[in-house]
Design a protein that fits this description.
The structure is a single chain. The protein is mainly alpha-helical. The protein has four helices and two strands. Strand 1 (76-80) and strand 2 (85-88) form a beta hairpin. Helix 2 packs across helix 3.
């Protein structure tokens, strides 16, 4: 389920819909999947849907700025092809900081026990 539409994203980015790339729907779908992963499928109420929408658009924006929708940037310090070699890199978070903030403020990143 996509949490944000092209129109909502364009408004969030303060651009015209025609300025969005051709694969915008695919990226919004992937961002929504990532949000679902981090909240463990807990999104159900309207305020949670609003937070998910904001987080999805923030995730898209982060990917657009970094050019790294697959999460590979800075994954390795170095890679060598001849006599293959690879070494570790920075632990870059996969969830955009603004997306994390939107989900956190709604309590969606809390993994504890719900008390009713």
């Amino acid at each position: 389920m996509k949490y944000a539409t092209q129109e909502e994203l364009a408004n969030y980015l303060d651009i015209d819909v025609t300025e969005l790339p051709d694969d915008v729907d695919r990226l919004l779908e992937r961002a929504s999947e990532l949000i679902d992963y981090f909240v463990r499928g807990k999104i159900s109420e309207s305020n949670e849907l609003d937070a998910a929408k904001l987080a999805t658009m923030a995730q898209y924006e982060w990917w657009a700025e970094s050019g790294d929708e697959l999460g590979f940037i800075n994954q390795y310090d170095s890679v060598k092809i001849g006599k293959f070699s690879i070494s570790g890199g920075e632990d870059i978070p996969k969830l955009a900081p603004r997306a994390k903030q939107a989900l956190f403020l709604e309590g969606l990143l809390y993994g504890g026990v719900d008390i009713k």
